[in-house]
# Entry
Amino acid sequence: MFPNKKVQSLVGRMVHVEMKGERSVLEGVLTSVDDYLNLHLSGANEMENGERRRLLGSVVVRGNNVVLIHPMNE
Amino acid sequence: MFPNKKVQSLVGRMVHVEMKGERSVLEGVLTSVDDYLNLHLSGANEMENGERRRLLGSVVVRGNNVVLIHPMNE
Amino acid sequence: MFPNKKVQSLVGRMVHVEMKGERSVLEGVLTSVDDYLNLHLSGANEMENGERRRLLGSVVVRGNNVVLIHPMNE
Amino acid sequence: MFPNKKVQSLVGRMVHVEMKGERSVLEGVLTSVDDYLNLHLSGANEMENGERRRLLGSVVVRGNNVVLIHPMNE
Amino acid sequence: MFPNKKVQSLVGRMVHVEMKGERSVLEGVLTSVDDYLNLHLSGANEMENGERRRLLGSVVVRGNNVVLIHPMNE
Amino acid sequence: MFPNKKVQSLVGRMVHVEMKGERSVLEGVLTSVDDYLNLHLSGANEMENGERRRLLGSVVVRGNNVVLIHPMNE
# Structure
């Protein structure tokens, strides 16, 4: 399964996303993803040292700034 | 709804945008967006720790430098 | 008006450009722009804390390293 | 062999991947790769100074944020 | 003149190039350029605070990591 | 000669490559390159202050993270 298909298979699941930039870790439900790995998360929280720091809610993340993504509880 | 369509659905609303670079957080009305997530904001303010730091007014943001975008008051 | 058209509408005007990288703020007259937001500025100055630091003159800026651009005196 | 073919030849092997961003080194089995060097790793660990810091498990890495990749034990 | 044409017009001239990354300023003769603003410089020097730090000679620079370029002595 | 052709002309030679990211300088034999400047190096060493720090061996480098490349002993 190609990497983008792997991410598509995670739609509907809680994911952990690490990004470039200052606020760098998000966790939320992956609502949609496209071939550029742009992500739409719902119920997303900004995380710090494994703790929730701020509720963002519905958020779109630009794919080129995603460093990595993995499903939670796997 | 794909991530870029989600962002298009926010046109006319106040959005919170986090970017790469030193002045990293903007809030303003999303006036237009294209498929690269280049954004045109109006009445935009540069934010720091949740406070307005500087009024930018009409500003165009390069999509590849957008880390995340979410609607305000949601 | 799409974001790239908004920038094209600024040709001939003074613009403020924030970029990635160490010398991050430029101001000058926008002479030309293409769809990647590559910019050609004339009479450009490198700015620091709102003051002119160095005259660059004619300068080309790579679009992907533009964080934001806005017209001055608006 | 072109660079992307070289990476494809590593599928099924343990690889060492260095990335941009704060958590910058991963090691795991390369499960799939596409032409953008997006990678799917399984059994991936986040590394620090050559030691395992955290088990990530199944993880997708965005190709543009991969600095380098090399096979382990070569 | 579009920005990439402006850069092409500088072939054969001494240029000043600022880049992302640790060694961020180069000066040399622009030998060739393509539409991505990949640059081939000859007789290039790495600069620090306006002084030559190291002779690189013939060097190719990746366009996406070019922040800005301008002709010298203009 | 366009910049990408210049790099192709270096296949088989020792090259010095500076990259974005923490481990930023590599030296090795350029085994292959594609039009994105993705590089395959063999016998590559990670360098620090002009000294070999670590042998990487066969390594693939993502082109967009290459800041510059030049031939050694030129």
In short: Chain D has a mean pLDDT of 93.
